[in-house]
UniProtKB/TrEMBL annotation:
It comes from the Bacteria. This is DUF938 domain-containing protein. SUPFAM superfamilies: S-adenosyl-L-methionine-dependent methyltransferases (SSF53335). InterPro entries: DUF938 (IPR010342), SAM-dependent_MTases_sf (IPR029063).
Amino acid sequence: MSDDPRRYAPATLRNRDPILAELRRLLPPSGLVLEVASGTGEHCAHFAAALPALDWQPTDLDPENRASIAAWCQGLPNVRAPIAMDAGAAWPVPAADAVLCINMIHIAPWAATEGLMRGAARALPAGAPLILYGPYRQDGVPTAPSNEEFDASLNARDPAWGLRHLEAVAALAAMQGFGPPEVTSMPANNLVVAFRRA
């Protein structure tokens, strides 16, 4: 039995470089990036190594994920120790220069998205980005069969989970003072959705 705490998310190897290309464009040149729901930590380690002028604060509710994040990010001087954070509750990080959230909104109750918008609105200065990645439903756009199957599997695991309508997420962001989203289509029927704090 291995004592290596690192966890693996197979999709990370496929999506990390396309996401990184968007982050190079969207993130500020320096400052603190707060990653909400960092999962295994593979994304954080990859992005921090590629963008060393930025400081990274990974977070996750799951202690095993936090152990995985710490192991993946070991030796990276620009990554802070992972901390426990519930997107829907009070945030332990009061301020950041960017907020990044990958593949959380559909694997969490809607209250987590509401909390994400509230917390990001409090933490970010004017003009700073809130960057989301994942699959969405969009008005007037057919949902890919693979995303329909994924949505059904999420609903089966937890009825509070599932693909969100991009328009509903954007409306929630607007209520918290964010401008309209900049949407970029990504491989495997995912989107990068970037909001700027007004």
